[in-house]
Amino acid sequence: MKEELNQILNEGTEEISSASDLKGLDEIRVKYLGKTGKLTQILRGMKDVLAEERREIGSLANKVREKIESFLTEKLCKLENEKLFADMEKEKVDITEPSTGTKRGALHPLTRFNNKFIDICVEMGFSVIQTPEIETDYYNFEALNVPKNHPARDMQDSLYITDSILMRTHTSPAQVRAMETLKPPFKIVCPGRVYRNDNDSSHSPIFNQFEALVIDENIGLKDFMIMVKEMAVRLYGKDVKMRVRPSYFPFTEPSIEIDATCQICGGKGCNLCKGTGFSEFFGGGIVNPAILEMSGIDSTKYSGFAFGPGIDRSVMITNKIPNIKYLFRNDMKFLKQMR
Amino acid sequence: MKVSYNWLKDFVDLKDVSAEEVAEKLTVSGFEVEDMIYQNKYLHDVYVGNIKKIERHPNADKLVVCQVDLGGKNVQIITSATNVFEGANVPVSLDGADLANGVKIKPSAMRGVVSDGMFCSGEELGIDENYFEGAGINGILILPQDFVVGQKIEDALMLNDVVFDINVTPNRPDCNSIVGIAREVCAIYGKNFVEADISYKTVGGNVGDYVAVKVETENCPRYMAAYIKNIKLERSPLWMRSRLQAVGIKPINNMVDITNYILVEQGQPMHAFDYNYLDGHQIVVRQASKNEKIEVLNGNSYNLDESVMVIADKNKPVVIAGVIGGTNSCINNDTKETVFECAVFDLKSVRLTAKKFGLRTDSSARYEKGVNVNSPKFSLKRALHFVSALGCGEIVDSVVDVVAKGVKLEHSDQLTLSYSKVCKILGIEVPKEKVLQILNGLGIEASISGDVLKCVPPFVREDIKNENDIAEEVIRIYGYDVYNDVEGIAFENSATTIGQYHPRLVMENNFKNVLVDAGFYETLNYSLYSSSACDKLLIPEGDERRKVIKIANPISEDLSTVRTVMAHALLLDISYNLSVGNKDLRFFEVGKVYLPKALPLNELPVENNRIAFAVCEAGYDFFKLKGVVENILVLTSAKYSIVRSEEPFLHSGVSADIITEDGRKIGCFGKLHKLVTKNYDISQEVYYAELDCDYLAGLGERKYETKEVSKYQAVERDIAIVVDEKVTNEQLIGAIKSACGKTFYDVQLFDVYRSELLGKDKKSLAYKIVFMSDEKTLISEEINALVNKVLKSLEFRFGAKLR
Q1: Contact status of B581 with chain A (Cβ, < 8 Å)
Q2: What is the pLDDT of residues B520-564, one digit of tens each?
Q3: What is the CA angle A139-B560-B694, rounded to 5?
Q4: Is the pTM for the entire model greater than 0.95?
Q5: Does residue A296 sit at the B interface (CB-CB below 8 Å)?
Q6: Domains along chain B with CATH numbers
Q7: In angstroms, what separates the C-alpha of B492 from chain A's closest C-alpha?
Q8: B92/B266 Cα distance (integer angstroms)
């Protein structure tokens, strides 16, 4: 009996270890542990064993069964894992096939630039406002110190609706509306569309501007210069260089134009920057005290600065867009490049 | 404004300053030099040569071999020119020369004989007969005998100038002149301004005896005139021609050249009349009358009217004031006596006239920018100085000077300003002595005592009124570079402000992101479009969107109307993209429609912000579009229902309006009306949606409220029923919900099936119903009972049969 059990253990262990698949393993299980299995039969035959041997044989038989069961489980686990690996091998795909599902579209480059610029402004304490695109000539010109006989007020340059209502020619009316409604100190920025009576290969009748205005006590040109530098750095990175030129706007005095390192050539000089290495960043200056007074702000107490970048050009430079007309053409082949 | 470097030297000592440096300094002080033109660009390696000997070429009949003296150096030149002769002075281009007509010179053998270079014609030197006698002929330019042999041709012909093309800002009309820029250069370098010579000799008599001037229009604040007799018309001297040539003005004759010289040097336009052609020897400054005509120097005739100011004689207009002279009275070869006009005309009047006729002249360009009322007096003297100095004629004593009432001459207010305020504006302290040096250098008489800064600007600086103006003058000369090194932070002495995003723009960005995730591309369209937009979109008469704002002076019909509907532009985008072969189009735009309260516009219209999107793609359908709309609306707190749309441009069976609880329409979506797609030449189906961003953003951010999640298991059951076509999903779902009562958790329509076999106008709908209780695990019997209840209810209310 003992020998028989040891033989079952040896044979069983051997068979289990040489089983190559789950089916074979199951057959081995039935062969030894099934209802008519070798071990089952021996256990069943225990009643015929002598009482004094029964205890010893019984214990041995159970050990053999436990061992075989444990070998079976171990082998089962091994074979199952092997199958998983084999199945996974079969599932292998060509990872270079295209993705499925809805592909993301894209925001317009102008929106991206606007959002970035708005973020920078808000971080720096500016609040975003919106004012009408259809404006009165008071807000568009008069309150900004653009005199009646200024060429900008001719029909030739602006799109008029009535004698006193027109499509705003710049976002600067936002300055006046802010000064009339807000109490200093404040910092505002107003992104928006502007309109001119101009349509040729390098001009669009509709384009985009930002208007920014700071009004407080003790505001001077130094504040403006330091802030502008910070904005340029946040927009174009810390290597950006700036160049300041005096300029003229009816609503600021002193007025300046600020150029930043050309983002196309990185300052080496290219066609777009006419070899100067700089491209126009924005124009602005200290708010003319006459404007403050006209809008009901005490110019002896408060001062401020106003500035505005032409967005379209910056968008073109940032994205290397070859022609301003692309911004409104909405050609899928162009828009797809913004994905 | 073109400014000659040599000319500037008349007024400021520039011996130690290069043209390039002047350009750089002008740019950083506010006079941007946009371009520099080197007059001698094509004249290097060209010299004055004297032909010593001419011999026949041994191997060519049409060539001659010339021995040429270049002032101590001899060269041999072969030429085919026939107008050269022994003893002639000629321009000789040598090795390395690069001529104006593109010819590059190098020594070469011609038929076996070496030529060291080439003789030049006027054209090859870039000049014409107007500039130099003989330069216009088809042959070699024969130079005068008094030219210095061996001299560089650019020096001999006075073509050695450098010209700055300067962008003069509108606040500085005084700088549309050589003297204006020269004063700036003086201030930049701290040099003294050299006053121009205005001395001249007269021959007695009285101008009043020869010419009478009447000003009958308010558009002429000042009119001055002088009378000159016994004119000797000839070429003006080379130096004067050189100056004019440099700034792009064609030399004509001494009298005309003097007027042009004053125009450029002083910024004061002038005109010279032939006295004998002035009927009645009268000059009348007036507005033209309706039937008058004038033929002017450019050869054109113009019909005049009351808006045009003219200079007339007793009978007829002779000049379009400030713009261009008439042919009938200008200086000509027979002119013996002349009247010089030196006047100020209203800038707007001149500008409108110049625009009306499309005539922009050197004169009108100056007047448009504004000529100071004090300018004529000095400028006329300067012109008469040249008449006298060049011996062009005899000047009769005194000048005419008609000044309009109310015009203040030679007047500058003394400004009492604060030095510390100037520094505060700049944010930096500029030392007092530096401020004074800069201001006085600019001709602004300034003094500082304590904090009081007293300034008297020159007459021409009408732009200087307050501390801001002074701050600008100081800093642009002091240099903006100073800020490069300024330490510190912005707003050091000001309040902190908290930045705030714009709620509508934030919401719009959220919507945009939904659309981008759904595969849409953002477009930008003009908010102006053709007046045919409403027609193409089938919008009926009487619809509010027919109330469109029109541009009074549109660029074109395509841009003549302010938009009231978003769909037009997006459909044009789709049409355009299809036409260039692009497929699978999903576009959106966020923009405004402009809705007037009344027309004609007497108050500003409502500007309503919309988000609109359109799809033109095979396999797209209404329900995909609906999904996108829902994904946008779910970001808002809008409570809405969906009803069949009445939008004229949408397909009536496949479109919906979005209506709020209080009955307000906040959007629409659906398939486009087939006639509309046809109107836009689109041969495929288009799906379109539009939402009111102002309304949705106005609702504020959506608030999310949650409740406890049931701990008992949810159970799903599927049912399939057959109902009439007219029964809607919404109705069935409502019935299912109410039949389930508290145990309802969710219901989804997962299949719709239509077949003749179901019966006429029938459809089969399959729903997955999810039951769940907050109190217990539902057992099978309870669920069966609920399903039965649902089926009974559906049968009772809609005649639904279990399939």
Answers
A1: no
A2: 999 999 999 999 999 999 999 999 999 999 999 999 999 999 999
A3: 60
A4: no
A5: no
A6: 2-39+162-189 (3.30.56.10), 46-156 (2.40.50.140), 207-403 (3.50.40.10), 415-484 (3.30.56.10), 503-698 (3.30.930.10), 715-802 (3.30.70.380)
A7: 8
A8: 37
